[in-house]
Amino acid sequence: MATFTDNPQPGTLPQWLQQQALQQRMGIALRHKRLGVWQVRTWGQLAAEVEQLATALQKRGFVPGASLVIVSRPRPEALIAALAAQWLGGVAVLLDPLESAAAQVPLLRELHSEWVFAEGHEEIQRLRAAGLAPRLLIYADGRGLTEVSQAGDTLAYEQLLQQDSDQRLEPQARAERTAFAFYRLDAGQGIEQQRISHAELLQEGRRLVHSEQLGRQDEALAARAFAAGGQARYLLAPWLIAGFRLNFPENLATRDQDRRELGPTLVAGTRETYERLHAQVLARLPEPGSWRRRMVDWALVAHPGALQRHLGYWLIRRPLRDVLGFSRTRAPLLVGEGLTPPTLAFFQALAIEVRTWPDPAQWQRPESWPAPLVNGWIEDSTQPA
Amino acid sequence: MAQTQATKVEHLLVLENIGLSFKGVKAVTDISFAVAAGEICALIGPNGAGKSSLLNVINGVYQAQQGRIHFAGAEHRRMRPHDAAVRGIARTFQNIALFKGMSVLDNVLTGRTLRRRSSWIEQALRIGRAGGEDDRQREAAERIIDFLHIQPWRDTLVGKLPYGLQKRVELARALAAEPRLLLLDEPMAGMNAEEKQQMSRFIVDINRELGTTVVLIEHDIGVVMGICDHVVVLDYGRKIGDGPPDEVRQNPEVIAAYLGTRH
Fold first, then answer.
1. Does B60 share its domain with B184?
2. Which of A40, A98, A254, B247 has its CA 20 to 30 A from that of B97?
3. B91 by DSSP, 3-state: which?
4. B95 lies in a domain?
5. Looking at the predicted structure, is the pLDDT value of residue A384 above 70?
6. B117 Cβ under 8 Å from any chain A Cβ
C-alpha cells in the first residue's frame, strides 16, 4: 500500500495539509456530526479554510511565534484554528478539555495569551474568571453570548472567516519550531508543559503510519484529540501524513454512540477511553451465575478452543465489538499510560490487540514562565536541536 | 384593570377577570394579570391555589366561565387547545405526558405536527410537499435536541429515560412547535439541585436565545426569584401578588400566605 511517506516529505503540519489538498482535493478530511448528520470537509475545503483563517489572524496582528490558546472540546473549528496558528508559524496551546473550571482557570491566568479560541459561553466564563483580556477572542458557539461585547476583540469563528481576502498565504511554520504546547497543573498546583515541534510530531507520526500501515482508507474518531501530546503525535500528525478521515463526535457525551456508528479503523484512545468502555460493558453484563453470563464468560476466555473461537465470535465477541464501535478497528492504539490487566485482558478476549504508543514527552515545568508564550521568536532557546 | 387594558398592546398575554369553577367549587376567582412579550413570568402559590387551572385556561384545556383572554393582541373568549397551539401556545405538564414507547426524536417530531404543510395522503405516499418536508422537520427537531443537549438519547425510548431527562424531552417537544408562549407546569418538580440548575439554565436560554415568552408554575422560590422577571402569586384561587420578584418578596400578604410569617 502506497503512502505519502514514500515521497519527498513536507517538514511541517501545514505543509502536509497543503500536500493532501493538492493530492486528494475532493477526498474527505474531516467529518463532524451536527444536528444528527455527519457534515463533511474535503481536504481542499479544509486547506482553504485554514489559509483563510490564517490570513484573518495575520491581519489582526498574529505573528510567527505567537500562541493561540484553545479552550475547547474537540471540534473542527478548534482544530482549524490550531492549524491556522501553525500556518502562521505560531503555536497552538491546548488544555485538556475535560479539566474542571477549577483546574483550568489558574492555568489560563498564567498563560495570559493575546489570542484565544474558546468553544462557547462556558469557556468564555472561564477566561473571565481568569481575568484574561485577549487581543482577539474567537468563539465557535454563540449561544448565551448575547451580552458578550461584539467589539473587535471578540469574534465568532464564522465572522472571522467571512473577512474577505484575495491574498495567498504560504505556510510560515518551520520544522524545528513548536507546533503544539500542552499545559496542565501538577499535584502541587505548579504549571507543567509539553512542547512538541513540527519535526518531532512528524517523525513520530511517520513511524506510526509505517508501523500500522495507515492510508487514506482509514477512519479515526477524534474524541480526545486535544487531551495531551500523545494525541497530537499519534492522531493528528498521522492524519495529515496518511490523509485519512478524522471524525469529530457530536459532543463528548455522544462519543461512544458516534464511534459505534462510524466503526473507525484507527482508535487512538487513552487509558481512560479503554477503561471507560470496559466499565460500560461490565455494567451491562448479565447477572453473575445466570446462564447468559456463563455464556459470555465461556466466550471471553483468554485461550479459546476451536468451538469457543467460532461460536463465541458470532454469539458474543462480534456483537460486543459492534457495541463498542470496534467492529472494523484494525489499529487499536493506546496513547500514554498502559492499561490495567483486567481491561487489557478484556480487549484481548475480544481479539482487540491494543498496542501501546507511549508518550515520549515529559511534562516539565517551564524554565522561564511565561516567556515561551510571548509573541515573537524568543522561544528558540527552548527548542530541541 | 384600566391600567392593564391600557397597556395590553405591549403584552403578549392578558387575562381579564378570569373565573373558573367546577360544579360550584371556585378554582379561580376574578384573576387579572398581563405577561409582557419576552418575559419569564412565574405563577406561584400553595397547592390548590389554582395555578394549574389557570394554565389550563390559558391554553384552552378548561374554558373559563368568566373573563377574557387576549393573546397576541386578539381577544379570545373561548379557545380550544388546538387553537391555542395554532396561535403559538405550547405547554408541558405537571405529570409527564410523553409517548413512552417512542424515541426521543420521534417525541420531539410530534411537536412539529402543526408545522407540517403536506397532507396525510402526501405523507403516506411520500409525494408532493411531503418530499423534502421530512428532512426539514427532522432538522428542526434536531436543532431543539441540540439546544437542550439531549443528543445522547436521541434514539432512546422515552420510557427508559430517568425522570429529569423525560422532563427535558417534554420541554423539547413543546419547543419544537416554535411557540411564542411556553407554559411550563412545574418543570423542576422531583428534580435534584443539579437538575434544577440545568433546567433553569435551559429556561433562561429559551427565553433569551429563542425570544420565547415563558409562563411557569414553580414551587422552588429560589428558582423563581432567580430566573423570573415577573411573579404572580395566587392563594385560594385569588391573586394576592403581582410584580417583579423583589417587590413580591416584600408583599406582606404574600409573605403571610406563601412564604411564611416570621414569628
1. yes
2. A254
3. strand
4. no
5. no
6. no
Domains, in order of start, for chain A: 11-197+236-244+362-378 (3.40.50.980)
Angle in degrees, CA B225, B231, B235, rounded to 5: 115
Q: Tell me which chain A residues have a C-beta less than 8 angstroms from the C-beta of B151.
A: 36, 250-251, 253-254
Give the burial class of A381: count Cβ atoms within 10 A of its Cβ; 0-12 exposed, 13-18 middle, 19 or more buried. exposed
pLDDT of A374 reads 40
If you measure CA to CA, which chain B residue comes closest to A255? B152
pLDDT in tens, A78-120: 999 999 999 999 999 998 888 888 888 888 888 878 999 999 9
For the cut 70, the answer to whether the pLDDT of residue A382 exceeds it is: no
The per-residue pLDDT for A147 is 63
Whether the Cβ atoms of residue A346 and residue A296 lie closer than 8 Å to each other: no
pLDDT attached to residue B263: 47
Per the structure, the complete domain to which residue B64 belongs is given by 1-88+179-263
Contact call for residues A121 and A100 (beta carbons, < 8 A): no
Closest CB from A34, A36, A146 relative to B154: A36
- Residue B6: how many CB atoms within 10 A of its CB? 9
CB B69 within 8 A of CB B57: yes
Q: How far is CA A91 from the centre of its chain?
A: 15
Q: Does any domain span residue B116?
A: yes
Which of A143, A144, A253 has the CB atom closest to B151's CB atom?
A: A253
User: Where among B177, B199, B232 does a domain terminate?
Assistant: B177
Of A142-156, A300-314, B104-118, B212-226, the least confident: A142-156
CA gap B140, B118 in Å, rounded: 16
Contact A137, A92 (CB under 8 A): no
Please give the residue that has the higher pLDDT: either A225 or A379.
Answer: A225
User: Is the per-residue pLDDT at B185 higher than 70?
Assistant: yes
**E strands, chain A, where?**
28-34, 37-42, 67-71, 91-95, 115-118, 136-139, 154-156, 178-185, 191-197, 219-221, 245-248, 266-269, 331-335, 355-357
A249 class by beta-carbon count within 10 Å (0-12 exposed, 13-18 middle, 19+ buried): buried
Shared domain check, B73 and B187: yes
Cβ neighbours of A261 in B, within 8 Å = none
**Whole-structure pTM value:** 0.85
CA-nearest residue of chain B to A257?
Answer: B152
Residue A152 has pLDDT above 70, yes or no: no
* B183 & B171 share domain: no
The verdict on whether omega for the bond into residue A370 sits within 30 degrees of 0, i.e. cis, is yes
Rounded CA gap, B220 and B245, in Å?
Answer: 13
Residue B94 inside a domain? The answer is: no
Q: Which amino acid is at B103?
A: S
Cell triple for residue B127? 409525494
Q: How many domains does chain B have?
A: 2
Q: Which residues between 161 and 200 in chain B have a beta carbon less than 8 angstroms from any beta carbon of chain A? A: none
Among B114, B147, B177, give the residue marking a domain's end: B177
ipTM of the complex as predicted: 0.78
Q: Note whether B1 and B77 are same-domain residues.
A: yes
Buried b (16+ CB within 10 A) or exposed e, A130-148: bebebebbbbbbeebbeee
Which cell is B167 given? 422532563
Burial pattern A19-33, b for ≥16 Cβ within 10 A else e, equals: bbbeebeebbbbbbb
**Contact state of B149 with A35 under an 8 Å Cβ cutoff:** no
Q: How far is A335 from chain B (nearest CA, A)?
A: 26
Residue B189 domain-assigned (yes or no): yes
Q: In the structure, what pLDDT confidence band is assigned to residue A149 with cuts at 50, 70 and 90?
A: low
Q: What share of chain A is helix, strand, coil (3-state, %, to 5)?
A: 45, 20, 40
